Amino acid sequence: MNHVKKSLITIAFLVVILGIAGQNILGNYYYNQQSSSNSKTSSSVVYIENGVSGDVSVTDPFLNRTIDINVIYDPLDSGSGFIVNSNGYIVTAYHIIGDPQTLQNQMTLKVMNSTDIQLYVERAAVTGYISKYNPQLGSELLTNNLPGNPTIIQSQPDTNSTTDMLIQRNLLNVKSSQQLIKVNLPDSSSGNSMDANLVDVGNSDADEDVALLKVNTLFNKLPALVVNSKSPSVGDELQIYGYPVVTNDMYSDVNPSTIKPSTTTGVLTAEIPNNNTIYYETNAVTEHGYSGGPVLDAQKSVLGIIIYSISTNQTSSGISSLFLSSQYIIKICDKNNVPIAAI
């Protein structure tokens, strides 16, 4: 899912969204334990999906029946993230777990509220109903087509329009709805995803495109990355990890047990102040799905979080990427009393 972000228009790029320190000083044992995991960086980079689930009753006035539709899970967007604390705390990009419609239409970051979630569940339920029970429902609603007096149907309105018409006629009844954020560890032998809770997000007014998640690790300790608290510098060599989209805007169409992060490399080329936030540009080429992945220095510690892929005329490929520095990672972890290994 591609989005254009309002705050970056002034930078004169075509921006395409790929959809701090008080408690960060740990004992030597913890730091050494986390440092030893740097040789296995990819095991700390996770795949993330943002979606919804719920139950909706759909009343069809043309077939004169009401059907209950169970939306088990409907994914809205996907991206990457990385483990910053062995107890299951994960950092990702705000726009991945936020409201995609607000981002697309208003070009702002926003957490989904109950009304947003309900609408996405309604749309998913209507899509399921149309595909299984009445493919012509949208056109019938649009033309007020009555049984026994059919109208020649030329085209179907899209699912969103059909959902809106059903809502206006009080033909949808949402019995339950919830947001589901799913996290997959790389090389998962079972291929099962874990449900994540949203802990906190960055300041949307300042375009702090960062979010903190928590998964239940039970008795297992997850491999966390070390975060470098220094500010990046032009000329720094970088490596970026993430899960680029493969088909249908999602990575999960591939067997989850085979999921592995991809990598791309480059150097930091520029600092770009915007809306009281500093973006860092790199000539590393990323694409949709890398968002939320870690930007690493030569020592495999985290310098930042990848946010955008941008099209410019300043690189040989015409494509570069933007990231936020690790200060925003440290800031959100410190705010929520989440200890991380920081240098």
Structure, explained:
The structure is a single chain. The protein is an alpha+beta fold and 343 residues long. The chain has a single domain (6-143, 177-335), classed as Thrombin, subunit H, CATH 2.40.10.120. 19% of the residues lie in helices and 34% in strands. The protein has helices at residues 28-35, 94-97, 100-106, 114-132, 137-143, 159-168, 327-335; strands spanning 14-17, 45-60, 65-85, 89-92, 172-184, 194-201, 211-215, 237-242, 262-274, 277-282, 294-296, 302-311, 319-325. A hairpin with a 2-residue loop joins β9 and β10 (277-282). α5 crosses α6 (159-168). It is elongated and about 65 Å long. It starts with 13 loop residues before the first strand and ends in an 8-residue tail after the last helix.
- Major sheet strand order: 8-9-10-13-12-11
Shape: elongated
Please identify the top-level CATH class.
Mainly Beta
Query: What is the oligomer described by this structure?
Result: single chain
The average pLDDT is: 80
**How large is the count of helical segments?**
7
CATH topology: Thrombin, subunit H
Structural class, by secondary structure, is alpha+beta
Approximately how much helix is present in the residues? 10-25%
Using only C-alpha atoms, the radius of gyration works out to: 22 Å
| Strand content range | 25-35%
pLDDT < 50 runs, ≥5 residues: 1-39, 311-318
Main sheet properties: 6 strands, antiparallel, barrel
Order of helices and strands: EHEEEHHHHHEEEEEEEEEH
What's the end-to-end separation, in Å? 35 Å
What features would you highlight for this structure?
7 helices; alpha+beta; single chain; six-stranded antiparallel β-barrel; Thrombin, subunit H; 343 residues; elongated
